[in-house]
Task: inverse folding
């Protein structure tokens, strides 16, 4: 999201500010009322094109005049981008201090540090699939786009100004980078959509599409007919986004080319084109375009905090409009009182240094909040329902026993998020899997005895985890290296008698973006998962191991949404004004319905067990997470939370399951 409102230079184009306005309004409408404009997220892609066009044009003009300076370029970027961002980050810390529970505040601190370092996209990518709370609980989620742009700014000015001395060389570099990034994006989106969405290598082509216009000015429209035609086609493509893009459709991939091409056409049409002149240059749109950067910065944190305070309730239309008005006022004040004075006037170098120092201080503050676990001594912590997810015995921290060694070949430990074993004795059992296994690991170690110690290979990152799959299917490719490394280590480890597998059902069915077990019956990957899982388990059995497959737990919303709002005081009144009603969440489910939804998944486990019934057992978590006599599975039992995040069990539940699993394994029964 490029800083909006360029200074009014002689070649200032009001229509570009109008295009900015359409982009930011689309994004805000999508976030506030997603059903109203389900393709509004494409506004970010429009901003990418505008940014690539303007930045490349500025650099080329200064190179041509022989007065380009990298130091001056970055000083200008700092003055334009840092001040407003720093104010928003400080505001988020202040609000978070009052209203966020310590887990939430810890995450906010981590994201503040990432935002100050323009690495939010990298951090969000690293969090995908690992205890990742819902997007609406992340006040700084929107800064991913700013991260992509700033990473572009770090690389592209150097390449364009220093490595491309001739027009011909510039063109080959721009075209080559744009084409290769686009091909990579289209190719990688079906394989790993989060990586294609967040990582700059898959997004640079959108900024480069704007750079193409700057490098080849002769491609601008030369006649009125050409300009008008381009502008109308560009507008039509923007409208087309509503039909081509939307929920459930892979993005970015080739679909991102629609808003990108629309932006290129509108920019190349020029300010005199009919659409640009009659629509994009009207004063209300130009005004919104001028404040588009601070408006983008403010809208998502305010919306997120309102949702958190209202316990996830959906905005009503009237209150959504009221919140939007607040965002516009804050954006105008930020632009008028902070942006303009710092970007213009005298002592520009000193202003850039001051802005950089301020941003560094904000980043350190965020890192400190994260390092201190969200400052749990704050007043709001006394109302924190997530404290019930901690078992009292958690004070006996497992890390006093755990050593960083899981008996893998030299150099392979780095493949795993966690490569550990209980140092109190020789391992008899091995735990492998993804973040579901990582959630269970502390409980298993804490409740184990001298009759059987453990090692663990697994955990989950954005692009790898240990999945029991030996498959050559491309949609499982990201699991291949870690899963095979774990298998080879277990085959070679003669101490391990039993391998326990804990993995997310959605990973088995290649549903990386699924948020509920209700998505499982729709998976077309049953046969692929069965084949890969069967081969993996058979390899373990052939190596002389027993195998225990732990049934995945039911999936619920974040547990804090299943209590009456504990965030009491003045901010409760704010929440009641902006959002009313009850959150659309399910906090319990009948066992019968849970089994119905998980039928395909349970059938897969049964067929895998049939590979060697005497050596492969299935351990069902249902008795430890559900009220079997009442026939209900629920988020909490009394004051004990059974889940820490929607898709992962709590420490208390981990202790409960770990104890039962240890007792069964050491007694010789895994059934």
Result:
């Amino acid at each position: 999201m490029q800083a909006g409102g360029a200074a009014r230079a002689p070649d200032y184009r009001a229509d570009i500010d109008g295009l900015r306005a359409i982009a930011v309004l689309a994004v805000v409408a999508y976030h506030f009322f997603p059903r109203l404009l389900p393709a509004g997220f494409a506004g970010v892609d429009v901003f990418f094109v505008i940014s690539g066009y303007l930045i490349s044009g500025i650099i080329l003009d200064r190179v041509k005049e022989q007065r380009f300076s990298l130091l001056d370029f970055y000083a200008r970027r700092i003055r334009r981008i840092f001040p407003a961002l720093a104010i928003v980050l400080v505001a988020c810390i202040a609000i978070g201090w009052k209203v966020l529970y310590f887990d939430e505040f810890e995450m906010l601190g981590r994201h503040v540090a990432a935002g100050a370092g323009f690495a939010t996209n990298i951090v969000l990518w690293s969090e995908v699939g690992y205890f990742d709370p819902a997007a609406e609980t992340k006040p700084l989620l929107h800064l991913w786009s700013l991260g992509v742009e700033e990473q572009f700014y770090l690389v592209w000015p150097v390449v364009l100004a220093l490595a491309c001395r001739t027009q011909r060389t510039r063109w080959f570099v721009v075209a080559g980078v744009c084409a290769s990034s686009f091909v990579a994006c289209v190719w990688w989106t079906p394989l790993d959509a989060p990586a294609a969405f967040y990582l700059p290598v898959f997004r640079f082509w959108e900024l480069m599409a704007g750079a193409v216009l700057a490098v080849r000015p002769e491609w601008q429209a030369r006649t009125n007919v050409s300009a008008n035609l381009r502008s109308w086609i560009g507008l039509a493509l923007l409208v087309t986004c509503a039909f081509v893009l939307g929920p459930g459709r892979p993005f970015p991939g080739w679909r991102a080319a629609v808003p990108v091409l629309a932006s290129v056409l509108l920019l190349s049409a020029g300010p005199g084109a009919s659409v640009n002149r009659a629509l994009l240059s009207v004063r209300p749109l130009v005004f919104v375009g001028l404040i588009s950067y601070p408006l983008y910065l403010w809208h998502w944190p305010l919306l997120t905090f309102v949702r958190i305070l209202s316990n996830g309730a959906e905005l009503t239309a009237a209150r959504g409009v009221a919140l939007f008005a607040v965002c516009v006022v804050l954006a105008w004040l930020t632009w008028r009182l902070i942006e303009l004075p710092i970007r213009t006037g005298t002592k520009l170098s000193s202003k850039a240094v001051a802005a950089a120092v301020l941003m560094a201080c904000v980043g350190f503050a965020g890192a400190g909040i994260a390092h201190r676990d969200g400052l749990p001594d704050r007043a709001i912590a006394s109302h924190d329902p997530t404290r019930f997810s901690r078992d009292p015995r958690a004070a006996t921290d497992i890390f006093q026993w755990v050593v960083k060694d899981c008996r893998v070949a030299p150099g392979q430990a780095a493949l795993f998020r966690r490569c550990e074993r209980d140092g109190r004795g020789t391992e008899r059992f091995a735990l492998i899997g993804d973040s579901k296994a990582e959630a269970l690991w502390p409980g298993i170690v804490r409740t184990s005895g001298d009759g059987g110690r453990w090692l663990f290979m697994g955990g989950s990152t954005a692009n790898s985890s240990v999945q029991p799959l030996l498959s050559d299917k491309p949609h499982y490719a990201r699991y291949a290296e870690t899963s095979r490394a774990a298998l080879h280590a277990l085959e070679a480890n003669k101490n391990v008698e039993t391998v326990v597998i804990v993995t997310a059902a959605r990973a088995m069915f290649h549903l990386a973006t699924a948020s509920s077990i209700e998505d499982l019956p729709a998976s077309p990957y049953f046969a692929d998962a069965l084949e890969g899982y069967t081969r993996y388990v058979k390899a373990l059995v052939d190596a002389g191991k027993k195998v225990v497959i732990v049934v995945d737990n039911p999936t619920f919303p974040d547990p804090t949404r299943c209590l009456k709002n504990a965030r009491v005081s003045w901010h409760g009144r704010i929440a009641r004004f902006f959002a009313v009603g009850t959150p659309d969440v399910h906090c319990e489910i009948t066992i019968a319905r849970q089994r119905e939804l998980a039928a395909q998944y349970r059938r897969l486990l049964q067929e895998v067990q049939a590979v060697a019934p005497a050596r492969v057992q299935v351990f069902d978590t249902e008795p430890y997470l559900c009220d079997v006599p009442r026939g209900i599975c629920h988020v909490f039992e009394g004051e004990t939370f059974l889940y820490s995040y929607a898709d992962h069990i709590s420490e208390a539940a981990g202790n409960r399951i770990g104890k039962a699993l240890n007792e069964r394994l050491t007694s010789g029964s895994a059934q």
